[in-house]
Amino acid sequence: SWRGVVFLNVYVVIGAAQVIACCSCLHHRKDFWNDPERFRRILSVFLSSLVNIIIVHMVLVLNSATVTMPKRGDEPYRSLAIAMRLLSIIVLLNTLMTLEVQLDDY
Fold this sequence. Notes:
The protein is mainly α. The chain is 82% helix and 0% strand. It contains four helices and no strands.
């Protein structure tokens, strides 16, 4: 369905933006000695982005295994699929804000 394709694109955008956020965090590795507090904040963003990359790739694998949305009688799987889609929108917004903050440092 077209909604499935839209959400696949959302997952790909999340994954790509998180990779960019991780790579931008690597630029701040010199802050370990100069500003340890800032380094801890950057390290936190790096680890969070890394976890999001892993989760998004697992969701992409799951979506390639189950191509269609479960039918109405297949609870709780249908509710889980809908919740995963709603959470992906929230993660996308969070990812875009994180990326904006990371790229403002340049």
